[in-house]
Amino acid sequence: MTPNVATPSPALQPATQNTLVDALVEQGWYVGREAIDLELCAALNQELLHRAAYNGLDEAGIGRGQQHLLRKDIRGDAIHWLDRESAAQRRYLDAMSELQQALNHALFLGLFEYEAHFAHYPPGAFYQRHLDSFRGRANRVISTVGYLTPNWPSDGGGEMVVYHPDDPSQEVARVIPEAGTFACFLSETIPHEVLPTRHPRTSIAGWFRRNASLGGVLDPAR
């Protein structure tokens, strides 16, 4: 007799895809609480905190390539790009691959790949209001944020504020960085910021991208 093997819970709740697609079409952004499996969040959070404790993160900057700059007055997180080196990373990235297929099927976006990094915000860190991609110039199409910190305190700060695409001064959502919450939004049109945190804040920031290669040279992922 074959022993019973427990089937792991889906990394993303099954209802997330349809709700997310509808929200992107209607308003350009989506936020779902308890969308990511909490056991997966715990494994990813443990991995990120281990890296933070042993200097395994890099200071985040702004811009790409030769225009990359460290600007603590703009953003204060530290990062590590996901590379499938752990089972938890592979499970999360596989879920994003499934979501990529669903987005391409429903919205014909031509998404080519997904890139993501751990993000650790120490107390006092923030990220000023910005867009993840410039209109018509870049290939980041849809941004994602998966939150990992359990039991987020009510006075912890660190919320992601989402602004209206046509009025960057109008706040439309404030996302508490609680483990299991998953946010998704249009990279070129949705301004957002991370408010100063008073508690160590952990997440995974990611982007679904189109292929912006020119002359047969693949646009670099970072």
UniProtKB/TrEMBL annotation:
Cofactor: L-ascorbate
Entry annotated with the keyword Zinc-finger: no
Record's protein name: Prolyl 4-hydroxylase subunit alpha
Listed PROSITE patterns: FE2OG_OXY
Record PANTHER family: EGL NINE HOMOLOG-RELATED, HIF PROLYL HYDROXYLASE, ISOFORM C
Record keywords: Dioxygenase, Iron, Metal-binding, Oxidoreductase, Vitamin C
Keyword Transmembrane (UniProt): no
Gene source species: Vreelandella olivaria
Gene3D superfamilies: q2cbj1_9rhob like domain (2.60.120.620)
Entries under Pfam families matching the protein: 2OG-FeII_Oxy_3
Ranges for domain Fe2OG dioxygenase: 107-210
